[in-house]
Write a structure and sequence with these properties.
The protein has one domain. Helices cover 13% and strands 31% of the residues. It contains 2 helices and 5 strands. Strand 2 and strand 3 form a beta hairpin.
């Protein structure tokens, strides 16, 4: 799970679910639209709602996404 930075939430909410994305450090890059967003990896505990809420929103990367 990744939490998208507040300033990027509007842009990323417009990305299509089928868009190809690449994860690099603290960035999610939409290779279809040549756009990127700052994001922070969040733990599974935070993802399940057992941690205090942060601003922004979370997205889940599939197992075949690249990350470094």
């Amino acid at each position: 799970m990744w939490e998208v930075d507040d300033v990027d939430t509007l842009d990323t909410s417009l990305w299509l679910p089928a868009s190809e994305v690449v994860l690099r450090s603290n960035k999610i890059i939409n290779t279809d639209d040549n756009e990127s967003a700052d994001a922070t990896a969040i733990t599974s505990r935070e993802a399940t709602g057992n941690a205090p809420s942060k601003s922004g929103y979370g997205i889940e990367a599939s197992a075949d996404d690249e990350s470094s």
